[in-house]
Amino acid sequence: MSISSRDIPFIKKVPVSLVTIRQARLFDIPEIMRVEHSSFREKYPRGLFLMFLENNPETFLVAEYTGKVIGYVMGYLRPDLEGHVMSIAVDPLYRGNGIGRALMIAVIDKLIRLGARYVGLEVRVSNERAIKLYEKLGFKKVKRVHKYYSDGEDAYYMVLNASEWGKES
Ligand SMILES: CC(C)(COP(=O)(O)OP(=O)(O)OC[C@H]1O[C@@H](n2cnc3c(N)ncnc32)[C@H](O)[C@@H]1OP(=O)(O)O)[C@@H](O)C(=O)NCCC(=O)NCCS
Predict the structure, then answer these.
(1) Does the beta carbon of 130 sit less than 6 angstroms from any atom of ligand 1?
(2) φ, ψ dihedrals at 19, nearest 5°
(3) How confident is the model at residue 41 (pLDDT cuts 50, 70, 90)?
(4) Alpha carbon of 13 to ligand 1 centroid (Å)
(5) N or C: which end of the chain has fewer CB within 10 A?
(6) 145 CA to middle of ligand 1, Å?
(7) Which parts of the chain span the membrane according to its record (predicted)?
């Protein structure tokens, strides 16, 4: 379950042009975990981030602003050539600045350049904000996955076809 930005009193306005999107490094893991802890109630263990970084260095990206990690996205390419977005989060203080969108564009571009025919992801049916972000990028709801999450909530499985990429604003 994600934490709503309505819980956060102050949102920082940041021009997205001053945010750098780059590959994650080992030394970023504590900052990535800080963002993750402020974004999700169910947290991934540190070992999972380390293993993911080792296996998918090109598609584990961070957003850096004034030397600080304020967002991350984890993508990977499956053997069946599905690019999959496993997780994305932006520090609650910096949301609504276009950083989530910039991270998604960067990881989708990378996955497609690595050979993905399409990009898929799961999202909680209640996560309207994320769903809106994905739909604006061209993702479509393909199916509803019953009780996908451990608390019993359903997920939408959403897909973006590589052939459609770049056609939507
Ligand atoms: C989802 C998330 C990554 C979006 O990051 P963000 O940096 O705030 O997103 P952006 O500023 O790039 O916004 C992109 C789009 O999201 C939607 N959006 C952003 N803020 C919104 C808000 N307050 N209400 C509704 N939709 C909103 C809009 O469609 C927006 O596009 P627009 O600016 O053209 O209208 C961020 O909210 C987050 O970290 N949430 C918690 C973790 C999470 O739920 N991750 C997704 C798991 S599947």
Answers:
(1) yes
(2) -100, 130
(3) confident
(4) 14
(5) C
(6) 22
(7) none
| C-alpha torsion 28→16→156→35, nearest 10 | 30
Question: Positive or negative, the Cα torsion across 121, 122, 125, 130?
Answer: negative
pLDDT tens per residue across span 49-107? 999 999 999 999 999 999 999 999 999 999 999 999 999 999 999 999 999 999 999 99
Pair type for strands 118-124 and 82-90: parallel
38 touches ligand 1 (CB under 6 Å) = no
pTM above 0.85, yes or no: yes
The single-letter code of the amino acid at 11 is: I
Q: How far apart are CA 164 and CA 75, in angstroms?
A: 19
Instruction: Determine contact, residues 118/160, Cβ cutoff 8 Å.
Output: yes
* Mean of the per-residue pLDDT values of the chain: 93
Domains in the chain with CATH codes: 5-164 (3.40.630.30)
